[in-house]
Specification:
Elements (H helix, E strand, L loop, with lengths): L1 H11 L7 H23 L9 H36 L6 H42 L5 H26 L8 H33 L1
Helix pairs in contact: 2-3, 2-4, 2-5, 3-4, 4-5, 4-6, 5-6
Length: about 210
């Protein structure tokens, strides 16, 4: 737990990174890990022999997402740090100002791209929670529900980070990206909500 304690300490400090984007990625990674846990608690059990193949496939997908989202915790912070570095670029001459403006706009695109990817991955975590909840070890079905809920939080949290970065994009060459990103926030948020609702419809009757 040392790494987590260090992360939380940094998160609570006056440093702007890690921030909400990293937390969003962590939410997704936690959800993926819970999916893996339920799958692992299912694989090898005679009672669930008929779904073992599906659970192994689900486990592989969950582990891929867990590792990718874990990496995104640092990538989000790195993207924001590049934006902060661009802010500190010289602006004494017109050429300086132009270079700084170009760099700022590109780093805003980069800073929006990372949480946008996190949104997509978190939606994937929720999708995997559906078969985990439906076919996984019933003794751990509540964990499948938690997986979906924290991943849903990750989707919407990452969406806020996409939104704040896209809001600063003014360059004409990045407008298509900004428009697509704005639409993706809505679409992925809606997909996350619907998938999470599907998981809850499976989980709640099994634990009531």
């Amino acid at each position: 737990m040392t790494d987590l304690s260090e992360f939380l300490g940094e998160l609570a400090s006056d440093s702007p990174t890690p921030g909400g984007g990293s937390v969003a990625a962590l939410c997704g990674a936690l959800g993926a890990a819970l999916n893996s846990m339920v799958a692992n608690l299912t694989i090898g059990k005679k009672k669930y022999a008929d779904v073992e193949k599906e659970m192994k496939k689900t486990l592989a997908g969950a582990e891929t997402l867990r590792l990718e989202l874990t990496q995104m915790i640092d990538e989000d912070a790195a993207a924001f740090n590049k934006f902060m570095a661009a802010l500190k670029m010289p602006k004494e001459t017109e050429a300086d100002k132009a270079s700084r403006k170009t760099a700022l706009q590109q780093t805003l695109v980069d800073a929006a791209t990372v949480p946008l990817a996190v949104m997509e991955m978190c939606v994937g975590v929720i999708r995997l929670a559906v078969p985990v909840a439906e076919h996984g070890n019933v003794n751990a079905v509540s964990d499948a529900g938690v997986a979906a809920l924290v991943a849903r939080a990750g989707v919407h949290a990452a969406g806020l980070n996409v939104r704040i970065n896209v809001g600063g994009i003014r360059a004409e060459e990045h407008q298509e990206f900004a428009s697509k990103a704005a639409a993706a926030i809505i679409d992925l948020g809606r997909e996350a909500d619907l998938a999470c609702e599907e998981v809850m419809k499976i989980v709640l009757p099994k634990i009531s």
